[in-house]
Amino acid sequence: MIDFMITIWAIADLHLSFGTKGKEMDIFGAAWKDHAAKIAADWDARVASDDLVLIPGDISWAMTLEEALPDLEWLGARPGTKVIIRGNHDYWWGSISKVRAALPQSVFAIQNDSFFAHGVAIGGARLWDSPEYNFSPYIEVVERGPFQEGPKPGTITQDDKKIFERELGRLSASLQAMNKEARIKIVMTHYPPISALLDDSIVSAMLEAAHIQYVVFGHLHSLKKEMPPFGEKNGLVYALTSCDFLGFKLLKVAEVP
Predict the structure, then answer these.
(1) Which DSSP symbol is given to 88?
(2) pLDDT in tens, 161-204
(3) Largest Cα–Cα distance of the chain, in whole Å?
(4) Closest by alpha carbon to 80, among 43, 29, 32, 33?
(5) With a threshold of 0.90, does the pTM exceed it?
(6) How many helices (H) and strands (E) does the chain have?
(7) Which of the ends of the chain has fewer CB neighbours closer than 10 A, N or C?
């Protein structure tokens, strides 16, 4: 008889700004107004203290670790054990040792390593724009003040390719560090690891070889209605978890007895 169950949740792109001014997300539309309060209300109502919550990057708009502290404290105040990776807008994320020293007790950061609890192994890496695919056809470009949301103009640059290659190395290190005896293996990436149509990619091959069952990611916003919802391929579930895509509610990824 099962009398204890751990739930694994995910939500990306929190874009918190409790320690910074002028970075409120409602500049992108009414749906973003008080978005942190919306997320907190859903989170606090559904997540148990023993649950795991995965946050695949873009946590805070802060430019420095000190500015990010109110946002990290907000995370720490939410129930569950939180596991985070860096997103492309997490400029405050510098030395991993300093980041970890500043994190609340219930928040854990992954960088070139992995996390293990309750039989669940979690790995991850930020990734970057991939030369294999792009999401421009699925995104409505929105420009508001200091922000721009939407695909980058032009093609992938040589610098982009170098960053992507470096991120592949970081993902490989994380996959190798994952507990081999885990009942469930999950990877977080900030950038999508596969195309919208689930065509095979360099990253999808790495994930399949490592027997990953779920990958959660974010980064994409302002999606058109015709955006394919990702899904399952070769036994691996690909889930987009950008908070606005989820209606500012956490996605239930899996349950673990």
Answers:
(1) T
(2) 999 999 999 999 999 999 999 999 999 999 999 999 999 999 99
(3) 57
(4) 43
(5) yes
(6) 5, 13
(7) N
The dihedral sign for the CA sequence 249, 232, 213, 175: negative
Q: Any residues with CB less than 8 A from the CB of 193 and at least 6 apart, and which?
A: 127, 187, 201, 203, 204, 207, 215, 217, 238
State which H helix or E strand residue 159 sits in.
helix 158-177
Q: State the Cα–Cα distance between residues 238 and 18, nearest whole angstrom.
A: 31
Residue 148 has a pLDDT of 44
In the chain, where the domains are located:
6-256
Q: What is the tens place of the pLDDT at every residue in 213-252? A: 999 999 999 898 888 889 999 999 999 999 999 999 999 9
| C-beta atoms surrounding 235 within 10 Å | 9
CB atoms within 10 A of CB 149: 18
* Burial degree of 11 (CB within 10 A; 0-12, 13-18, 19+): buried
Q: Can you point out the beta strands (E) in the chain? A: 6-10, 52-55, 81-84, 107-109, 115-117, 120-125, 142-144, 147-149, 184-189, 214-217, 231-233, 236-240, 251-256
Whether the CA torsion 196, 9, 90, 114 is positive or negative: it is negative
In this structure, CATH architecture of domain 6-256: 4-Layer Sandwich (3.60)
